[in-house]
Amino acid sequence: MKVKVLLLGEPERCAQIKMQLRDEEITIMGIVVDENQVLNEINRTQPDLILITDTSSMALRSCQQIYLLRPRSVPVVLSDLEDSKKTYKILQSGVHNILSQEIEPLSLIAELKGIYSNESNRILALENTGTLTAKSKVILLFGPKDGVGKTTLAVNLAVKLAQKNNKVVVLDCDFQSGDVNAFLGMNPKSTVLELIQEQSNPNVDTIRQFLSLHLSGVNFLPNPHSPEYASSITARQVESIIAALRVYYDYVIVDTVSGFDDISASCIECASSILFVTGKDVPALHNAKKSLAVLGELSDKEKIRLIMGKSEGNRITQGDVSRVLGIPVWGVLPYDEKSAVTAANQGQPVVLGHPKSRISREISSMADRLEEMTTGVQIGKSRKKRGMILGRGRRKR
Predict the structure, then answer these.
(1) In this structure, how many other beta carbons lie within 10 angstroms of the beta carbon of residue 199?
(2) 370 three-state secondary structure
(3) pTM of the predicted model as reported, rounded to 2 decimal places
(4) CATH classification of 3-127 is 3.40.50.170, yes or no?
(5) Which residues are CB-neighbours of 193 under 8 A, at least 6 positions away?
(6) CA dihedral sign of residues 180, 184, 190, 196
(7) CA 307 to CA 327: how far, in whole Å?
(8) Domain at 137-390, CATH homologous superfamily
(9) Which is nearest to 178 in space by CA: 205, 218, 196, 151?
(10) Cβ atoms of residues 71 and 49 within 8 Å
(11) pLDDT tens across 76-127, in order?
(12) How far is CA 350 from CA 159, 225, 280, 305, in A?
């Protein structure tokens, strides 16, 4: 075991801690004093842990940056554990590991090694490369604002992927205002809240007891019935649920809140592909550009697929959107008010209620391309070769 530690805080205190951490399994990567240099130093040194030696406003701002933008480097804070208000502020900044500022050097070394071991196991569980199914992809639906079709796409993609004999589950991570259940026309009793209340360390078998099954074959885990319970669900719990679901399901579709918080940051870290949904009006594109910049810091840019969400006709073209955002448009969600609104009012996915509509055809095409990305098999060519079984192949465009 080799643990790389970066120290953050007042120079004198950091120098004292550096002397105390003399151990052959711990390497001190450096000392950071200026909060503006924290992310640069993490990029340069790639530490496993950041040991924060004070609880100033600067330090807590740094904790938030580390948690959101460098999630694989784990912050550990030394603080007065008897000060409950200060402890609460530290927890709000995204830190889960708080040690007493009076801790003895040998105990500090042991604690840091233990935290490193636990966090390494957590990341391995998220990646879970040894036990995943052949596909096992986490598809995250994300966007800078509501109302552009993000949930519509999440639900209907899930249905189309399930129609291809995939095991599909939808996780509604918009814990305050998510409406996946409404789009599926169901009102289940069990939600993610009941799951975490009854299962402190859930595995796929226990989670499946709380899932609801739609007639399309899609399983889903709804958000809490009341938004007041949203704050009781932690990012760590969401990570463990996603990691467990990946063991069994071919596709885990995650519909998250618009914008960035600790829950969405964890979902971004877990995602195999991120479908970034934006409108094409000028304010929407302005917000999208800023959000894509943050998203690029949180995740591999190669994972991001840009979707033009539903918006009524204006003179901004697909090419304009691609040029402004600096990323090609991967899919388009047409504005098809009649089909979409009718399906929503009926509590029925549009791909089932209106399979020949423009929006259904486009979503079906996106599902085909997700399958191609996952399996490496081009769906169109596969159908053409087996036309007698699957029907006519697509015409070349």
Answers:
(1) 17
(2) helix
(3) 0.65
(4) no
(5) 224, 225, 229, 232, 233
(6) negative
(7) 10
(8) P-loop containing nucleotide triphosphate hydrolases (3.40.50.300)
(9) 151
(10) no
(11) 999 988 887 888 788 777 787 889 999 999 999 999 998 888 777 666 655 5
(12) 10, 24, 22, 22
